[in-house]
Structures are given as structure tokens and as C-alpha cells.
Amino acid sequence: MQRTLILTALALAASLGTVSSSLAADTGLSISSSTAPVAQKLDAAGEGRRLFLKLNCYGCHGMYATGGMGPNIVHAERNDVHEVLMRGEDKGMRSYRDYVNDTDIANITAYLQSIGTPNEPTFKDWWKKTPPK
Ligand code: HEC
């Protein structure tokens, strides 16, 4: 009787050990993925500002989209942004067809629409996980 109990306890301990070590492995995974450099998700205008900087739109349209070598695109409409990004423009703008999806286009439009409003994001460092406003 005594012996059976001990054996049962040992078996239980062993199986608990397995469970807890597999739990530890799982936890380890989720810890490492949550500490990976994942950018904080911003609102649509913020994500659009990120793309505007990351895709170098500012290089031609100016830091705040008011124009440079390319035209002022403040408050551009979604259809225009979509069309231009898919097709490119003859006079100096490539197509971004392979680099943006519909959500990106909606976010870029939200950013362009936000310019001049209190919601306008003005940060310059798109690579920051948590950019200042
Ligand atoms: C290499 C320079 C360059 C880059 C980079 C660039 N553009 Fe352009 N973009 C232009 C030029 C030049 C025009 C105007 C072409 C024309 O008049 O036919 C234009 C036109 C546009 C228009 C239409 C404006 C209008 O009034 O018709 C939009 C919208 C636009 N760009 C958005 C963007 C966005 C968003 C990005 C980044 C994803 C971007 N552009 C990147 C040069 C650039």
C-alpha cells in the first residue's frame, strides 16, 4: 500500500513535471515574441504617417505633404491615392503596387486627410516602436 502510494506520487510528479516544463516552453515563446521589436499599433492616420515616411513619399511631396518636387497632396482623396499608387504617374512617380495593400492606402489617405487637424501625426521617425505624436 505504502509503496503503491509512493509510486503513484512519483508518477504524478513526473507527469506534472512534463506539463509544467511544456508550460514553461510555451511561456518562454510568448515572452520572446512579446519582447520582439513589434511596433505599437497607431490609429489610421498614425499608421499612414509611418508609411508616408517609410515609403519615402515625403522625399518628393515634402515632409508634411505640402509639396516639393511632387505636388501638394494634403487632403488627397482615397480614390486618387489608390489610383496613383497602383498605376504610378508618368511625370516622375513610380507605382507602389507591390508595396501597399488596401489598408495601407486607407491609412495613407487618413494621414493626408488629417493634416491640419488636431489629429495630425507629425513624428519623423517611422521606425520607432512608439513614436511621439
Ligand atoms: C520620386 C518622387 C515621388 C515619390 C517618391 C512619390 N511621389 Fe507621388 N507624385 C510625384 C509626382 C512628380 C507627382 C505628379 C505627377 C504628375 O503631375 O503627373 C505625384 C503625384 C501624386 C499624387 C496625385 C496628386 C495629384 O494632385 O494628382 C498622389 C496622391 C501622390 N503622388 C501620392 C504619393 C504617395 C502616397 C507616395 C508614397 C507612397 C508618393 N506619392 C511618392 C512624385 C513622387
Automatic annotation (TrEMBL):
Keywords: Heme, Iron, Metal-binding, Signal
Cytochrome c domain: residues covered: 43-116
Signal sequence range: 1-24
Superkingdom assignment: Bacteria
Keyword Iron recorded: yes
Family annotation (SUPFAM superfamilies): Cytochrome c
MF term (GO), any: heme binding
Keyword check for Signal: yes
Pfam families tied to this protein: Cytochrome_CBB3
Protein name as annotated: Cytochrome c
Species, as recorded: Ideonella alba
